[in-house]
Design a protein that fits this description.
There is one protein chain. Helix 4 runs antiparallel to helix 11, helix 4 runs parallel beside helix 13 and helix 6 runs parallel beside helix 11. About 65% of the residues lie in helices and about 0% in strands. With about 400 residues, it is an all-alpha fold.
Length: about 400
Amino acid sequence: ERGMSFFFFQAEDGIRDPLWSRGLGDVYKRQMLNTTTLYSDALWALLGGAFIAASSSLNLFLNGRITGMSSIFYTLITWNTKEGLFWKILFICGMLTPVYVLFSMSNDGIFEGKPLFYPGYHNVYGLILGALLVGIGTKVGNGCTSGHAVCGIPRLSKRSIVATTLFLTFGIAIATLFEYIQLWRPKHDITDWGNVYIEQIFKNSSLIMVGLTMLAGFIIFTYNWVNKTSYKDVIDLVVSFGLGALFGIGLAISGMCNPHKIINFLALDKDWDPSLIFVMASALGINLITFQLILRNMEKPFFLGKFPEIKQEFDVPVIVGPIIFGIGWGISGLCPGPGMLNLFILPQGFAFIISLALGNVIASKIIIPMLTPPAKEQDQGKILNLSLIHI
């Protein structure tokens, strides 16, 4: 009888290489690993969504503010002191600091088995184009995943419900299309950069970023203290830092900082990752309860400000903006909040932020004026009549 030899190629995870071996044992082990990973990701996603909900609910409860990352980003790049610049800077400082600490600790195995951040490298062309579209779309549509989905839907805003439906639909469509044609997909190697030490450089840069972030927060806090700002305003800065920290940790542990994970969620293919559904379910589920309790039982916020009005009317920007945002989100896998967190984590983080800011400027200076209808002749006539009466 002819002897038979069996060759099995052992993978690093202890499972034979599926390209060479298709035994039932291999399939079973991989299914078990996939199931365990899914459960783990779902739990992290639920916890991250709870952190995001806690931050946004407390921001509404204490100060009547909507935690919209796209509007916060635009205030920072335009340095608009009339739009709450200082509290927004402290919020971002708080958001960045714990995330960079987590990133620095991840090499020590503390988060082993849970990739908080994307370990590979993004296609730079897809990242730049996606960021540009995200910047245009979020500015035109006046919101992103946080402003419309996490904070808008819990306020029962029809505009936010429509906007969220549109950017999810177009994000899924574009990500699925690009996945099938393999255009501008993230990679797990560094061939695009050609420097094996670049990841360690960015790892060290994260520690520098922590120091710069803390320094910026200290300078702003001291400035307000020296200029005899009211104690409520000073406390507001401290609270904003803490709320930003909650929000940033939520984004990190939920997987929202990982563009590869976002694209795997949006792209409907064999590698579809449903875990981010749990982020939205957790954040939305909690905020639907807390937002309604706050808005229905409180006349004004506990600490400062007033509750924002809920706009229900529809216009062209609220349709066009989310569509553009969804397309950019499906290409890049990042929206404004996670994009800012990846500034010193993703090697192309600077390219994303610059393109995002450019998109915001293009939208505000060119696209929004084009989509905004001019004042009607009747309204102009009323204004003229009123001016004549006063004369």
